[in-house]
Automatic annotation (TrEMBL):
<dbReference type="InterPro" id="IPR027417">
    <property type="entry name" value="P-loop_NTPase"/>
</dbReference>
<dbReference type="InterPro" id="IPR052156">
    <property type="entry name" value="BCAA_Transport_ATP-bd_LivF"/>
</dbReference>
<dbReference type="InterPro" id="IPR003593">
    <property type="entry name" value="AAA+_ATPase"/>
</dbReference>
<protein>
    <submittedName>
        <fullName>ABC transporter ATP-binding protein</fullName>
    </submittedName>
</protein>
<dbReference type="InterPro" id="IPR003439">
    <property type="entry name" value="ABC_transporter-like_ATP-bd"/>
</dbReference>
<keyword id="KW-0547">Nucleotide-binding</keyword>
<dbReference type="GO" id="GO:0016887">
    <property type="term" value="F:ATP hydrolysis activity"/>
</dbReference>
<comment type="similarity">
    <text>Belongs to the ABC transporter superfamily.</text>
</comment>
<dbReference type="GO" id="GO:0015658">
    <property type="term" value="F:branched-chain amino acid transmembrane transporter activity"/>
</dbReference>
<keyword id="KW-0813">Transport</keyword>
<dbReference type="GO" id="GO:0015807">
    <property type="term" value="P:L-amino acid transport"/>
</dbReference>
<keyword id="KW-0029">Amino-acid transport</keyword>
<feature type="domain" description="ABC transporter">
    <location>
        <begin position="5"/>
        <end position="236"/>
    </location>
</feature>
<keyword id="KW-0067">ATP-binding</keyword>
<dbReference type="GO" id="GO:0005524">
    <property type="term" value="F:ATP binding"/>
</dbReference>
<dbReference type="Pfam" id="PF00005">
    <property type="entry name" value="ABC_tran"/>
</dbReference>
<dbReference type="InterPro" id="IPR017871">
    <property type="entry name" value="ABC_transporter-like_CS"/>
</dbReference>
Length: 242
């Protein structure tokens, strides 16, 4: 696989606090790469840095183009879309209005075609298009958040803890849909996710994030075969921030 995204020496700061320092990450075209680590390790900071939503230094090379200085909006136009933790859909707006927001850069015909494909993918929200988003369940809201992100036709989805607050059955459903989208569209995903059962099934590569740095990476397939890889995995989950 060729590289879709190359992140080089990415550092994100919040004033005096370091979110992530000198991160190096590659996401292959069509691949799923997961960031694993304890709370506060710096995983979301990486996603925000790639999305252009944080004060970042370093390089973000996407499809061979240097987007390091590009605004968040330009990155969305280039095909990088962030789905934040906690979903952040507009709960006062209807399902349809939220989808329209996700496709605000599109012409009317493309928007209608995408909307219809997304509602096919998420039948749970297809018959609720006129309902305000606050009336949806947590799982349905997550589907809407992913659907809204897909409206712009991204090449890379930055997905922050999609399973947060969802029941196991819904977590499985959300990941099944993501797998389907990936197969159908070749979408790449950079994922932050605490549910390791889903991560291991869904990812190609795992990056371990500890105390604001990347401590290593492994092929997901190595975890079952290598004691050393399992130790790295455990440490990344347990690693407290210094
Ligand atoms: N907006 C912010 N302002 C100040 N500090 C922040 C901000 N966002 C994150 N941080 C700090 O940056 C560090 C990394 O946070 P980040 O959210 O990237 O970690 P994370 O691994 O995604 O954690 P979690 O799994 O809990 O979401 C933490 O020390 C956190 O307190």
């Amino acid at each position: 696989m060729s590289e879709l995204l190359e992140v080089r020496a990415l550092s994100v700061r919040y004033g005096a606090t370091c979110g992530i320092a000198e991160a190096e990450i590659s996401v292959p075209a069509g691949g799923v790469v997961s960031l694993l680590g304890a709370n506060g390790a710096g995983k979301s900071s990486i996603l925000k840095g790639v999305a252009g939503l944080a004060d970042a230094q370093g390089e973000v090379i996407f499809e061979g183009r240097d987007l390091s200085r590009a605004s968040a909006r330009e990155r969305v136009k280039s095909g990088i879309v962030y789905v934040p933790e906690g979903r952040e859909i507009v709960t006062a707006l209807t399902v349809d209005e939220n989808l329209t927001l996700g496709g605000f850069l599109l012409d009317g015909r493309t928007r209608a075609a995408r909307r219809s494909a997304i509602l096919d993918l998420f039948p749970e929200i297809a018959n609720r298009t006129r309902a305000p988003a606050w009336m949806l369940s947590g799982g349905e809201q997550q589907m809407l958040a992913i659907g809204r992100a897909l409206m712009s036709g991204p090449r890379l989805l930055l997905l922050d803890e999609p399973s947060l607050g969802l029941a196991p059955l819904l977590i499985r459903r959300v990941f099944e849909r993501l797998a389907q989208i990936r197969t159908e569209t070749g979408l790449s995903i950079l994922l932050v996710e605490q549910n390791y059962a889903m991560v291991s099934r869904f990812s190609d590569v795992l990056y371990f994030v500890r105390s604001g740095q990347i401590s290593g990476h492994r092929l997901a397939s190595e975890i079952d075969m290598s004691e050393e890889a399992r130790r790295q995995l455990l440490e990344s989950y347990l690693g407290a921030r210094h």
